[in-house]
Write a structure and sequence with these properties.
Helix content is 46%, strand content 13%. The protein has 24 helices and 16 strands. Strand 15 and strand 16 form a beta hairpin.
Length: 490
């Protein structure tokens, strides 16, 4: 990368270093090539895109294209755009005092040209760090051309005693001020069509027009747009000529499997050290959190077109830990592990992040959230053990009938209330010996700390298939055989 030292203060000193001007898209391309040749990852911490989105993004950079990241919410579009900054030179020289990051060897503004004409090699140079070469604008209906491109400033004209025909009266907008930088417009379809039209020449020819001024102003900008495909029908659209000027449109997507999703959540979740020390989260609980999101994306109760953000899993994980922590604080437990009962605490994290379909509206958001948790438990159960419909097969039958028979003979002896400490909670589940037999056969290397939760998943799975009944017991839940529950109901 260009490593010119920021202690250089004049144009003459800069020239002596052999500095050369490059467009920002050439800069990104060259630095990407260097990064790849070193065997380094240009986009660290991005999981699930290794064979899809990242190669397309790298190709777009090598092609020096403007980019549109198209995908549903929570698919790391903005994060990818921000990570492009890491491919910029650490420092960039500009003419000191410039409004538009003028290149000392190729100035654009009247101010920079005047200073260079007067001072030549003594022109003062300032340095801009790459973190300051990223400008982000959320497209909203109230954005104006003046906001993005600029307008005539009557106060400046009056103070400088200039006519409106002088280009020095122009107040530049966000885009000219982002010259030689990365400019991101999030949710592009929300930008009014007439504002999108104002971007045509900037993307293609570099001209800008402000209140009758037609300036040949070849801005050097890497544009990155983000858009949600559903926005094309719900709130607006990207006008066709603008789409035509965007070199690469890259489709993002959600993680393809639970393991990748769990990796993303583990990276993004924020837990305090005291929470980590107080609450143990079994691996299967992390998988279960992700499975809830997968169930939501396929549920008839949820509008699939709106998407389920990765933020849902992150906040659900944080709520799950807090739910277990709250239980431990209420009952004076110094340490605890996540239980299935704690999953009731993630409901608020789910209801605010799902667009409920018509079928879901009939049932209510809380019902939908509880249903998704139950379906996630069922799917996790199916992925971990032989499915219930295979009960008739002799190999699996002995294990399941052993569990069910225990509840027939010991009804009401497996109540999991909130006030149970971890030892009592495990001891209660240990009363059902067939649970251990099942785990020993299909998951013999299960971490002892995760074993109790896995037993609960077996019981919930049997409930979901109608083989056992789950009842509310005080501030917790209990399991019983179906006949006993039926007689109790009568």
């Amino acid at each position: 990368m260009n490593t010119s030292h920021p202690q250089i203060h004049t144009l003459g000193e800069l020239k002596a270093t052999g500095y050369r001007s490059r467009t920002i898209r050439d800069e990104l391309r060259e630095n990407l090539i260097k990064t790849l040749r070193k065997g380094e990852q240009p986009f660290p911490g991005i999981f699930g895109y290794e064979h899809t989105v990242l190669p397309e993004l790298e190709r777009a950079i090598l092609s020096r294209h403007h980019i549109n990241l198209l995908g549903l919410r929570g698919q790391a579009k903005t994060r990818l755009a921000r990570m492009l900054v890491n491919l910029l030179d650490e420092w960039m020289p500009v003419v000191a005092g410039t409004e538009v990051n003028d290149d000392p060897l190729s100035p654009l503004s009247h101010h920079a040209r005047s200073v260079l004409a007067e001072q030549g090699d003594d022109t003062p140079i300032a340095w801009v760090h790459r973190n300051d070469r990223f400008v982000e604008k959320l497209a909203t209906p109230d954005v104006t051309v003046a906001d993005l491109i600029g307008d005539v400033d009557p106060i400046k004209a009056a103070n400088l005693k200039l006519s409106y025909a002088d280009e020095r009266v122009i107040h530049f907008g966000l885009i000219p001020r982002a010259n030689r930088s990365i400019f991101v417009i999030n949710e592009l379809p929300d930008l009014q069509a007439r504002i999108q039209v104002a971007l045509f020449n900037i993307l293609q020819e570099g001209d800008i027009q402000i209140r009758g001024f037609k300036l040949r102003f070849p801005l050097d900008i890497q544009f990155v747009f983000t858009a949600n495909p559903e926005d094309y029908t719900n709130r607006g659209s990207i006008v066709t000529p603008l789409k035509d000027r965007i070199g690469s449109q890259i489709l993002t997507h959600y993680p393809a499997d639970v393991a990748t999703a769990a990796k993303i959540t583990a990276q993004e979740v924020r837990m305090l050290p005291e929470q980590s020390s107080r609450v143990h989260v079994p691996n299967i609980a992390s998988q279960l959190i992700e499975q809830v999101a997968f169930e939501a994306r396929n549920s008839e109760y949820v509008d699939e077109k709106s998407g389920i953000s990765a933020r849902m899993s992150i906040t659900a994980y944080e709520n799950l830990v807090s739910s277990a922590e709250l239980r431990s604080l209420k009952h004076n437990l110094k340490h605890t592990a996540v239980r299935l009962g704690d999953f009731a605490g993630i409901v608020p994290a789910l209801t605010g992040k799902m667009e409920i379909a018509y079928e879901g509206e009939q049932e209510g958001a809380r019902f939908v959230a509880a249903h998704l948790i139950q379906e996630a438990v069922r799917s996790t159960y199916d992925a971990s053990f032989p499915k219930i419909p295979k009960l008739e097969k002799q190999e699996a039958k002995a294990y399941y009938t052993g569990i069910i028979d225990w509840f027939v003979n010991h009804s009401g002896e497996c109540d999991l209330t909130e006030d149970l400490d971890d030892d009592t909670y495990r001891a209660t589940l240990d009363r059902v010996p067939a649970l251990d037999s099942l785990i020993d056969k299909y998951h013999p290397v299960t971490d002892p700390a995760d074993r109790a939760l896995l037993k609960e998943i077996i019981l919930w799975g049997l409930v979901s298939y109608g083989k056992l009944s789950k009842v509310r017991v005080g501030d917790g839940i209990g399991f019983t055989d179906n006949l006993s529950q039926m007689l109790k109901d009568i």
